[in-house]
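User: Predict the full complex structure for these chains.
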Amino acid sequence: MSRLLSSRYAALMFVALVVIVPGLMLNSSFYLRVGALIFIFGFAALGLNLLMGYAGQVSLGHAGFIGIGAYATAVLPTHFGWNIFAAMAAGVAGAGLIAYIVGGPILRLKGHYLAVATLALGILISMVISNEVKYTGGPDGMAVPRLEVFGFRLRTAQHWYWISGGVLFLGIVAAQNLIESPTGRALRALHDSEVAAGTLGIDAARYKLIAFVVSAVYAAISGVCFALLNGHITPDSASFLRSVELVTMVVIGGMGSILGALVGAALLGLLEQLLAQFHEVETLILGLVMMAVMIFMRDGIVPTLQRLLFSRRAS
Amino acid sequence: MLLPRNLKALCRLWVADRFMAELLQFVISGLTVGAVYALVALGFTLIYNATDVVNFAQGEFVMIGGMVSAFAYAAGVPLMFAAMLAIIVAIIVGLILYRFGIEPARGASSVVLIIITIGASIAMRGLAALVFDKQFHKLPAFSGEAAIRVLDASIVPQALWVLGGALVIVAALWLFLTRTLFGKAVLATAANRMAAQLVGVNTSFVMSFSFAASAAIGAIAGVLVTPITFTSYDVGTALALKGFAAAVLGGMGNPLGAVAGGLIIGLLEALGAGYVSSSYKDAIAFMVLIGVLMLMPGGLFGKAHTERV
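Assistant: Here is the predicted structure of the two-chain assembly.
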């Protein structure tokens, strides 16, 4: 128990350091923006990890929920005169509601069938976004109104670095609480064996739905932050490739590990920036790195490193 | 009195005629696209049955088929040899993928293997952009561009090549799997790898073979369809997506289901584009897909599945 607690706080301390130290040291808005993007997508990956790593269900459509959060933040104030905070809340609530409605029937599917159904869901959402040109600006995207708090305009990369870092920290606290609650234990039981969990009286459908809705809400919050940071959004934020990227972050970092999702997000985010200099070979190297990480660390980076450290300590 | 009535009947006939011609046109273009999806789905199924891997790089084989043959043809190689070259290149790439991507990760969980094939697909796309370019390329139609008219619908001859080619591949694969000893070894491996190994099937060879055969099927589809749809370095992702959807719609692991799934998705797309909205054509296919999966969670031709504990 004490080890559990210490590792829990150790993870929180680690994340706090990773947010604060670079935040104080970096002063170029470019790097701060990269950092903010990593926090934002790490946040979405964190939510997806609850679904994939704990409940054991795959989703290839989670970028759709990012899109709902992002576009609600942009469309509702611009076209319907909503207050932006109400729009943000509506986006997150809307994503959760859609996940709740669709999740019931979809989560009865298993394995590859579930993957395809979520893929289809994500594509439907992104298709609505790119086709309703009147509201969303179509493939060109649309501008997002700036956020004002007490007359103070939040617009620089620095502002959003600290905001998204804070949001990420809170997201981790919430995820840890969820995992250590009875719900979390039920989810892990489901992950290991749905049948065995069922015989213990765990309502599989209900807990899978909880994980799905929670992960959709995480994705939508990340979409809201992304829209506000960028000031301009395109349907790319909801595309199939973005969904694949999220899944990749979770799996590369390590499924079922809170830090794993962040490490995965950081790796992909930094790699993207690093490779941007070698424009010609960018995609080639990205693909090869993905393959290499998965071949040599099939449990993901964080669990593999943890195991290496533990075995060294033991010997 | 007589004339208007006749006129009305004539009009009705004409409208019915137009409707039939239009419908036929949509069905033909749907089956043509569907045949390509079917071949991609067939490749998915072949690899999935032999190795349990969902190969998201399957669409890249279609891209390789199209790009290599288009470049070879543009460099002066006769069409026939350009096509063969493309198929050989795809087979080599497929074998490399198996040997260096899949085999070292044997026994990893299915989602890890999926990420590996997605990585492979991204790498192949990057390599294609590097080796070739980012432009669209085409091949000449195999037997002329002049459209054939059937019942007021016009069919490009290349569409017949695509449909015929798909038919030949499916028939050849079926004969191979059911009538040859090695084909039966492939089926045995698909049914139970351990048992197949115990009766002396070289399962490792069967697995490499499944990658080579899938690559060849994908490349042939790419060669056949490039005169109609053109090709570029990034056509693979969309095809892999539709092929995967088709394979699952038909019931994962069932080759004939994969073919049926591909044709159904192609038809839905064409009819949706024709009668509903061309910008939502994919949406219709995917909505039907979700609907079918809700009613039949194992796909159209899937077997009932029980979980062993």
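Chain A touches chain B through 48 residues (CB under 8 Å).
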